[in-house]
Design a protein that fits this description.
Blueprint lengths: L10 E2 L2 E2 L5 E7 L5 E7 L3 H10 L7 H5 L8 E7 L6 H12 L10 H22 L2
Antiparallel strand pairs: 1-2, 3-4, 3-5
Helix pairs in contact: 3-4
Length: 132
């Protein structure tokens, strides 16, 4: 068995310092509809957990904003952003692309094109898995 090198998570003066930058898309399994688009500097699995577990609407945004989230099935697709890409700007560009209003963020097409294509590929995989 080969063990991986440890991932270092810096905690400085009682605060966790994010070590990455991610965009993530909540996709409803049955319909393929996008329910939420977010960005985080923390582990996307942790962020997904907080979205549904936290009663604080700033942390539990899916819980606070997606109707019947607890009766629906989602896949959360997470994408690491390249270093130097502004997460907030990338998130807004992705939302614009997904809402078909997004040709104004051409500077981030290399980031958003990959995410949109991955989303389409995932939708195709999910629909073929659920077909009988």
């Amino acid at each position: 068995m080969t063990l991986s090198r440890p991932r270092v998570i810096p905690v400085r003066k009682g605060q966790v310092r994010p070590t990455g930058s991610w965009l993530y898309v909540w996709v409803e399994v049955g319909s393929g509809a996008v329910a939420y688009v977010g960005g985080t500097g923390f582990d996307p699995e942790l962020r997904a957990y907080l979205h549904v577990a936290s009663e604080d609407p700033r942390l539990g945004r899916v819980r606070a904003s997606v109707p019947h989230y607890d009766d629906r099935d989602f896949d959360v697709l997470a994408f690491a952003l390249p270093e130097g890409v502004d997460r907030g700007h990338a998130r807004e560009a992705l939302i614009a692309r997904l809402s078909a209003a997004g040709d104004d963020a051409a500077d981030l097409r290399d980031v958003t094109d990959h995410i949109v294509q991955s989303l389409e590929d995932h939708r195709g995989t999910v629909s073929s898995e659920t077909a009988y």
